[in-house]
């Protein structure tokens, strides 16, 4: 794996590998004009090593990612590539890529499938297969060990959400804490009433709020890992949504005390995902709700409430920033099944009136 550092003399690359006995070997070179030049050097270094049969699958994967993908993908997508690479490291460790068989790779898929859903597995394996094809093109391996292997996955878990009485409890408690001092309560409040993702909320600027039109414009997201503002998860996530007076009143109250560019920021930084999730846990505990809940479940609760009140699925999909209704339907299949059963009973009642 290669790491990069910008020095006064130019970019420096440090290449770390382990030999067959697990001993760390490092080599470095500096003076590159650009990071891209340093990446190219690292790739050539690992190419030569791979030809000699000593480069691990994960080492090749990292250099393939840095060379071909890192500068082209969004931060959220880069995080997925990173997670996929860490899983390779954990399972294959230092095993040379040329020694991996179809059986080895299938066992890896089997283990991976025990803890990941179909969508996640499909995302990871597409990246592994692309990496292996690159290794074939580089003549590092002679056969594609991903061919004729079978993906496995666990059944998708039902989304966690709050029931109506729990949601009202949560809202009542949070409203009692809206005094302009603690940002976490406002973040939770906005999430409940908008269904926005956490990163979308924490990236909000005051200019994104139109108090006259009663809308919020969602055009960017905050990545708490990189501490950077970047583009939304997908192009379809860019949207403008209507909000109710309660949210606008809460934001106006907050604006009296916080006029910084980013609404949910202090003098030091924008609120992190860890801080927001911890706040959700504290609030749930305070109202006596015992659920294994994370911040994103507030988004699910928003959807559950809208569906229970017969809001059209297309409108919900657009509000969430999904590309199309298919994504919404797949994500909330469990909730939609409950709604379908109620609608079936309604159909029977209507037919009985004929």
From TrEMBL:
Keyword DNA-binding tagged: yes
Keyword DNA-binding among record annotations: yes
Keywords recorded for this protein, A-Z: DNA integration, DNA recombination, DNA-binding
GO molecular function: DNA binding
CDD domains: INT_ICEBs1_C_like (cd01189)
Domain Tyr recombinase: 157-347
Domain of life, source organism: Bacteria
InterPro entries referenced in this protein's UniProt entry, alphabetically: AP2-like_int_N, DNA_brk_join_enz, Integrase-like_cat_sf, Integrase_catalytic, Integrase_recombinase_N, Integrase_SAM-like_N, Tyrosine_recombinase_XerCD
GO biological process, one term: DNA recombination
Entry's family note: Belongs to the 'phage' integrase family.
Protein name: Site-specific recombinase, phage integrase family
